[in-house]
DNA sequence: CTATAATATCGCAATATTGCGATATTACAA
DNA sequence: TTGTAATATCGCAATATTGCGATATTATAG
């Protein structure tokens, strides 16, 4: 039918898939890389840097933000995006546990 | 237009995205988890375990295999899938470097 | 060779994703 | 309030993904 059958899988499998989906687009990876560089980035600057239109960049930002990995705050008319390091570490841990657990079972 | 613009991003960003795409479906995560458990799994067994049809399961297996993470070998009429630990470690490293590098820049 | 069991591929329908232009919204300055 | 700069949202077309039934392929047993 064409819809991912989330309900038949474990919560853990869905969590990992959800996080991976955020990183499954090179534009979003590039955005995260760029935001890491500067402490607080403008959508406009990111858009220029990754060479995608402002609307497209904004949409990707929303997708990443939905996971909690990004936080933003208005200063003047501009919105400054930065990485929520705590969430970022949690995400890393989720992947790392998955990789480690799988590896351990193979040995 | 609806196509991911891979060419405008760095090779590294594309690599990470490609790998993440494999993990962006919970069925594929579940398959990897299950294959880790048994040393050499049949498509049939995996299909039953994750409760998706045999064709769907086989297709997911091909997608994962394309990255090199899975290897397979025929024994009798059956095909046994198992994880290529070396490739698995490389994949982990790729993610880990990305997470670490991003984190380092934030501090 | 023929039958059989296991897996892979094809073709399809439903849905999701990607990227953009046009437009709406937001927050401040004057 | 009005103008302005920055960001968010809408609506769309093109393409990609997901899952399945039907069927083809593959590898062995007899």
TrEMBL record, chains A, B:
This is Transcriptional regulator. Residues 8-103 form the HTH arsR-type domain. CDD domains: HTH_ARSR. InterPro entries: ArsR-like_HTH (IPR011991), HTH_ArsR_DNA-bd_dom (IPR001845), HTH_MetalResp_TranReg (IPR051081), WH-like_DNA-bd_sf (IPR036388), WH_DNA-bd_sf (IPR036390). It comes from the Bacteria. GO terms for molecular function: DNA binding; DNA-binding transcription factor activity. Keywords: DNA-binding, Transcription, Transcription regulation. It holds the Pfam family HTH_5.
